[in-house]
Design a protein that fits this description.
- The chain has 142 residues and is α+β, with helices and mostly antiparallel strands.
- It is 40% helix and 19% strand.
- The chain is built from 5 helices and 5 strands.
- The chain has helices at residues 2-10, 17-28, 38-47, 54-66, 112-124, and strands at residues 70-76, 83-89, 96-100, 106-109, 135-138.
- Helix 3 packs across helix 4.
- The protein starts with a helix and ends with a strand.
- Bound molecules: zinc ion.
- The site of zinc ion has 5 residues, from loops.
- Zinc ion is lined by residues 35, 88, 95, 97, 108.
């Protein structure tokens, strides 16, 4: 709890119980489950016996996003039907994402060749690459 308090203060947020609890949930998430929707966070809080409402979860996650603690991704189903909003702790590392169109599972990856190619392509067009986001929409082979 002490480290969460520190972290909140360091980004200028007051320490409140919901903020601490939600930060703990995000920090405790395993690598393969570190992209959580607000509903996922809400469910994890309930499982831990915490009484925090969904509206509070949304509000706190948005505050975390504005403070730079978390990154929000809006993954749009390529069919355009649904947008899945997930949050992950911002650890300052760059990575790209794959989203399973069947389960919504989010997989992280990095590929130095892709990174290099993007750099080159921007340069060939006379630009410096500032940032990029790449999302692959996938379906597991059966
Ligand atoms: Zn990620």
């Amino acid at each position: 709890m002490a480290s969460e308090n520190q972290e909140l203060k360091s980004v200028g947020l007051k320490v409140t119980l919901p903020r601490v609890k939600i930060l703990q949930i995000l920090e405790a998430a395993e690598d393969d489950a570190r992209h959580m929707s607000a509903e996922d966070v809400y469910q994890a809080l309930r499982d831990a016996g915490e009484d925090v409402g969904l509206a509070t979860v949304y509000r706190v996650l948005t505050q975390f996003e504005n403070a730079g603690l978390v990154t929000r991704h809006n993954f749009t189903d390529p069919t355009g039907r649904s947008v899945r909003s997930v949050f992950e702790l911002d650890k300052g590392d760059h990575h790209d994402h794959m989203v399973c169109t069947e389960t919504g599972e989010v997989i992280e990856f990095t590929d130095s060749l892709i990174e290099e190619r993007q750099q080159k392509i921007a340069e060939e067009h006379g630009f410096d690459l500032m940032d990029h986001s790449l999302v692959l929409y996938v379906k597991r082979k059966h």
